[in-house]
Design goal:
This protein is of the alpha+beta class. It has two domains: about 1-30; about 40-135, Cupredoxins -  blue copper proteins (Immunoglobulin-like, Sandwich). Helices cover about 20% and strands about 40% of the residues. The strands form two sheets. The chain has a five-stranded mixed beta sheet, with no helix packed on it. Strand 1 (about 40-50) and strand 2 form a beta hairpin. The radius of gyration is 29 Å and the shape is rod-shaped.
Length: about 140
């Protein structure tokens, strides 16, 4: 028959081994990253036509820099606006750019805002084509 203290020592060794095995299995699940890794730059293609504004992609992660490649496929001068062009309390980020017919222009913008921005271009006929751009 075994000594009672040896039996307790054996049970303690089994308990210690099971605990160590549990930690080895669970450790990779606990070692995940706690921050988001957003891409440094995202190319957003914006095409202005007579009746529509097309964006691709329509959603970009917050914290990245968006390079807007804006193309005017119309026969007239167009002014395109993304977000708010005025600065101040309660205003969102944004810019406005004038484009000659059948030209393109690049505009870079750091996206430190989370939400939806309106993209629009006024026309002489009073119709204002618009769409939205989302920063997630």
């Amino acid at each position: 028959m075994q000594n009672p203290s040896r039996r307790g020592l054996g049970a303690l060794a089994v308990l210690f081994g099971a605990s160590a095995l549990l930690l080895v299995i669970a450790a990779p699940g606990l070692a995940r990253l706690q921050t988001t890794n957003t891409p440094a730059m995202v190319m957003v293609k914006v095409t202005l036509s007579e009746k529509t504004i097309t964006l691709n992609p329509k959603q970009v992660p917050r914290g990245s820099t968006a390079i807007f490649l804006i193309t005017n496929r119309t026969s007239t001068l167009r002014t395109m606006t993304i977000g708010d062009t005025e600065r101040g309390q309660g205003k969102k980020i944004g810019f406005a750019v004038k484009l000659q017919p059948n030209r393109e222009q690049r505009v870079a913008m750091f996206l430190d805002y989370r939400g939806t921005l309106r993209v629009s271009t006024p026309r002489a006929s009073g119709v204002r084509p618009s769409t939205t751009f989302r920063i997630s």
